[in-house]
Amino acid sequence: MADVVLVAVVDRVATVTLNRPEKRNALNSEVLARLPEALADQDADGEVDVVILTGADPAFCAGVDLSEFEDTEGDTTVMDEVLGGGRRGPFPEMAKPVIGAINGFAVTGGLEVALACDFLVASERASFSDTHARVGVMPGWGLTVMLPQAVGARRAREMSVTGNYVDAETALRWGLVNHVVPHEELLPFCRKLGADIASNDQAGVRRLLGTYDEVTSTTVEEGWTREARAARAWEETRAGLSADRRDAVIERGRGQK
């Protein structure tokens, strides 16, 4: 059975790949356990300076695995994992920079995974959507903090209440991603950025990232607390996700590709 998270290290740059392509790299219990481990391992590895996070084509990440989510009525294990992330959602505390290489669509929880990266590079095939409201769950990984930071409050609200997809060029124009490149150039481009980062003083790089985190969190810390509180309160009263609603959400996403 293939590992759901792959890791490869070349020239001090680690590439971590979500590897459930047949499920569009949806986050099941195994991925939710393995991804933080893989990232923490690279953060602790003295031979690694930079991490690239991507997905196995054709998607970056379709979010939480809705089929597993549906099948856990009465068992809160999956949602406890979803809502029990650290300061950066599903990421552990990271001192090293994480570049998100967005190779396809990043949806809902997948969008939150992308937002947890330090910055994003998108393939021309990338798209972004927040379907929390369509699924009937609340974000618990900081989306209501990080998405407005990236695109502004009004655009973030539009994305969340419509569930509509934002294509790569729009994401670039809105400031959600730093670059859009041809699909086949995505990883080489990110590796070049990784090499640029690795060529710097690494103590300085990590101190700068730490300072960014400290400065930005002073103005939004309460937002994280309130989002987590709202997500848990919502989950306590959730009736569950029906198969019909799950299929409708998936079909709508396919229609917007």
Structure description:
The structure is a single chain. The protein has a single domain (5-184), classed as 2-enoyl-CoA Hydratase, Chain A, domain 1 (Alpha-Beta Complex), CATH 3.90.226. Helices cover 50% and strands 15% of the residues. The chain has eleven helices and nine strands. The strands form two sheets. The protein has a six-stranded mixed β-sheet with strand order 1-2-3-4-6-9. The chain has a three-stranded mixed β-sheet with strand order 5-7-8. Helix 1 links the parallel strand 2 (13-18) and strand 3. Helix 6 (143-151) packs across helix 7. The protein is globular and about 50 Å long. It starts with a strand and ends with a helix. The mean pLDDT is 88.
What's the main sheet like?
6 strands, mixed
End-to-end Cα distance, whole Å, is: 30 Å
Summarize model confidence as the mean pLDDT.
88
Strand content: 15-25%
